[in-house]
Amino acid sequence: MFADNDSVRGGDGDGAFTKTKEELDADRIDLTHGRDDMTALGQLVGEPETENNASVKMNFGAPPLTNDDASKKTAVANQIMEALCKAFDIQDGHGGGMPRVQLLIDGAPSHFSVIFRNARTSSKGTVPAQVLIANLRNRPSTEHRRLLNNSLANLIDRAMNMAAENLEDDDLLDAFLETCVGYQKRLGL
Hints:
Elements: E1 8-9, E2 17-18, H1 21-25, H2 35-44, H3 67-92, H4 98-106, H5 110-116, H6 129-136, H7 144-166, H8 170-180, H9 183-187
Antiparallel strand pairs: 1-2
Helix pairs in contact: 3-6, 3-7, 3-8, 5-7, 7-8
């Protein structure tokens, strides 16, 4: 009663197909049956035609994050952390900024802390990009770009909050915030 006896679908236009009764009753329909079907599918999705067109690859994710890209993103965050460190060094005396930046690194939310594991700030307030990249490579590659972008953006947001709450001199605060302007664009967000 519920059998599918219609073996011709879609009329004469795109998407039309013809299957035998046995093919319709099968548990699986093989869509890579013929070269003509694959050629049409490859042209539809914009794939270049290959010699045998055995399969069509489609990537819906972001391009893989290279070490160079990760270093550039980390350099943006380091520029801002260095400016924060310098502002607190001016306010609190030499050496007053580095512990505050380290506090930001250590106080990262749990879902971002994996990136900052074992990261120690320099006396200038910067974090070694190699440590962040090594921590990042311990995660699945599909997470790399999103995780790095979000963790660095969160770090910068928390740095701006710390500066707004703790820098007493408005000129120091303004100078620091000037370095933060456009950070999202520089991070590639």
